[in-house]
Hints:
The protein is an alpha+beta fold. Helix content is 24%, strand content 30%. It has eight helices and 17 strands. The protein has a four-stranded mixed sheet. A hairpin with a 4-residue loop joins strand 15 (312-313) and strand 16 (318-319). Helix 2 packs antiparallel against helix 3 (43-59). The model is unreliable at 78-111 (pLDDT under 50).
Amino acid sequence: MTTATKDYYEMLGVKRDASQDEIKRAFRKLARKYHPDLNLGDKSSEQKFKEINEAYEVLGDPKKRADYDQFGKTPFEAGARGFEGFRPFDFGFDFGGAEDIFANLFGSRRGEEIPLRGADLATSIEISLEEAYKGVSKPITLTREISCSACKGTGAETSQTCSNCKGAGVIQQGKGYFRVSQTCPSCKGAGKIITKACKSCRGSGTVLVTETIKVKIPPGAHTGSRLKLKGMGGAGIKKGHLGNLYIELTVKPHAVFKRDGDDIYVDMSVSIGEAVLGGKIEVPTLDGQVTMTLPPGTDSGKKFKLKGKGIPNTKIGIRGDEYVTIKIVVPKKVTDKMREALKEVEKAYKA
């Protein structure tokens, strides 16, 4: 189906009663997908880009949209006559509108290079529960691309103005009212042709570096936490921003403690006598040993809470709790003296 028979609303994928904001959002989304600079050599994307640009030139203008809704597409086609208020427009977006949107989308206007942000990188770090509790600084080594300092990312030691686009970075195609601005295929929009490649980067504009950096992990980290180091990712293209580095954290299992959110759980072994008579017992916490009072007659499985002895939550500014579960340990070997004592205890139970 040609653009002459397509419906502008269908081209942008919106309903006929869509708001101007909805039309603008739809155009932005499609423009990112089909922009020629992001689909080099793809003729179908190039054609699609022309179509959505044509549709937005009309639907993005409330007056043109009203005329389109009333009279249909014919007044906007090349060679149409007698339509009041019609003025020719350039699908290379000379008249604003779409041009402004592409300036926002890609940070450039006609004749300027379109910067693209560098790739994001990802890595992982494993930390102990104690490190997650207190916070820690960890060194990591990464290899990434950065802009070549020798050529400032251009890839050229020497260059000359592109003869195809005369340094504009774009070329005009079409006749009459139907003119389309396209990225120059010779210089890829740079406006210049490299005559001698940079020796340091061999013309790529980027170099690989390996560096060791320290990563600060705040208290309260948990498995699945992600840290973002802005600008520590890959090099941008055509002076685009650097990408980011994302670090995923894993907290190793602990031999003594179990963690659930911000709370800590620990099993505490006591003797039969301690459970029956009660008393003071030493309990491990992430801050070290603390003394806890065990009430007389404590059953196995009884759980006690040590308030504020868990993991700090920096978002809400409080710490979790520690839960101590009592486990009564039955002796494996019983001496004659212990046996007699236990018999007396049994008699007391039955009395």
